[in-house]
Specification:
The protein is an alpha/beta fold. The chain has helices at residues 17-20, 28-51, 61-66, 68-76, 94-112, 128-136, 186-190, 206-224, 235-238, 241-255, 265-275; strands spanning 4-12, 56-59, 80-83, 118-119, 141-142, 153-157, 171-177, 193-195, 198-200, 226-233, 260-262. The longest helix has 24 residues, at 28-51. The chain binds zinc ion. Zinc ion (ZN) binds next to loops.
Length: 281
Amino acid sequence: MMKKIDVCLTFDFDAISVWIGTFHARSPSALSRGEFGNVGAGRLLTMLRDWGIQATWFVPGHTADAFPQTVEQIARAGHEIAHHGYFHERPKTAEDEARDFDRASAALERITGQRAVGYRSPAAGLMPSTLDCLLERDFLYDSSMMGQDFCPYYCRVGDQAPSDGPFVWGRQTHLVELPFTWGLDDFPIFEHVWTRNGVNPGLASPSHVYEIWVGDFDYLYERIGEGVFILTMHPQAIGRGHRLLMLERLVDHIRRRDGITFKTMAEVASEFRRTHPFEPQ
Ligand SMILES: [Zn+2]
């Protein structure tokens, strides 16, 4: 059987916003970890250029405002810039969410001159209202859910999960889901984080992470033969030397195989819509 595997390298350029939003930090030490994301982004841009690979960068509005030159450089290099909230936080209300959403869209558009068509929820914290927000703004895809691993699918709205009754399935929409998973995300496994709620040890060795990532890729390639392999990385995490060397080893492993194409997320989502036309139920 001919293999047909799309590979998406995605970078969540959270920079300082993840420390302010998700971790509620104000210490200059914590914030400087986000600042290092800008260093990592520069290294990744060079590697992507050398490989000739177009990636997808999910950029919070806060990062676009803090590091406009880097975001402009990413866009100019032909990479896709996608939406990742403004402050990297879970909004309290649907109104807050809509306001921050549009503020982030405006920040990205100001720099890139283009409207983002893809979205990944900060820390995979999608709210039920987020999907409505994406549909109202005619987004092409989301990448925050885990209902599949290697297969895009159409998102539902209106699911209900009562604690005293059976699950109620909502209706399918034309918003494409390009699945996310924590297992193919570098942040929890590499980043050592202390919070009031506990400690995430992180700091895994790159060989340990390589084993997990290459294992998922090999399963897709050898056993399934068709689908999309999506890696979620953060310049502030993957941008350290020993981890970049691991990423190089992984990309070499993938590139040696036949039937592999590196694509942006928007390309994969558009192709899915074309080959699997949405049929309203
Ligand atoms: Zn993020």
